[in-house]
Amino acid sequence: MDVSIIIPYYNAGNYLPDAISSVRQLLRRTDISCEIVICDDGSTDPYSIEILSGLEKEGLFTIARQPNKGPAAARNTAVKNSTGKYLVFLDSDNKLRERLVEKGIEILGSNKADVVYGNAAFFGESTKPLFTQGELNIPLLMARNYIDMCAIVRREVWETTGGFDEGEELRKGQEDWDLWLRAIKAGFRFLYVDEVLFDYRVRAASLTNDDSLERYNKAREYIYSKHPDFFKQSFFWLSDQLYAYQQDKRTPFRSFFKYLYLKYFKGGK
Q1: Taking 80 as the threshold, does the pLDDT of residue 246 lie above it?
Q2: Is the pLDDT of residue 54 over 70?
Q3: Which residue of 7, 8, 133, 241 is 20 to 30 Å from 40, comparing CA positions?
């Protein structure tokens, strides 16, 4: 099998049909062997369960089920039930463009990289970009995760890194950020394609989530504690960038960086 499309799924019946529609054509291609693997992470919504049952009856998809453990665990379970030498990670509310698979196979097949990613087009509640992807920059990647999960990778990336961190600290997000950092440490090569390769759905929760910043900061602290070597290398670059951008106006952010510096840099870990 050339490619496995990995889709974690939890109560997303309103969105999964769009995601599936974006990848159905891949199953019909004769030049690419492709499978679609969905892991239901303990969905409880009747409509979402019905949607998944309908897909299961088609017999075209591999569907795994597990108790609710979060998206990281769902992705890991889906990968374990897949056979592709390349993995494409697609969230159940987003849409894939065939170009990602085509370009990815071309690049990975010629051994130019191990992780291939590109730009997103935004749709849904807003078309305003929520993030911008670009060439790999480790100090910038320590500041924020700007490489979306929707990428194509060699299976060895998942195997060598041990897959996604299923810990509670990353249960609600940023598990992809951690995976990318571990992949870099393991020596895997990243290649950015300056083309739109997937469609990112902007949902109301993406725009108005009261506890998202707190969750993000907790996840970031956990990631920094896992990767103090990267943080040490990047700290002064991050500090300079933050100061230039904030002009010393947002004390909470400065305090956060000071705390991390004292804990992970000056402490000599």
Answers
A1: no
A2: yes
A3: 133
**């602290």: which residue's tokens?**
221
Single-letter amino acid, residue 132: T
**Tally of CB atoms within 10 A around 84:** 19
Q: Where are the alpha helices (DSSP H) in 81-129?
A: 98-109
Give me the residue spans of the domains in the chain: 3-209, 227-269
Chain length of the chain: 269
> What is the gyration radius of the CA atoms in the chain, in angstroms?
19
Q: For residue 102, how many C-alpha atoms fall within 13 Å in the half-sphere facing its CB? A: 14
35 contacts: CB under 8 Å, gap ≥ 6: 1, 3, 4, 5, 61, 62, 82, 83, 84
Supply the pTM of this predicted model.
Answer: 0.86
Chain position carrying tokens 């960086």: 257
CATH number of 3-209: 3.90.550.10
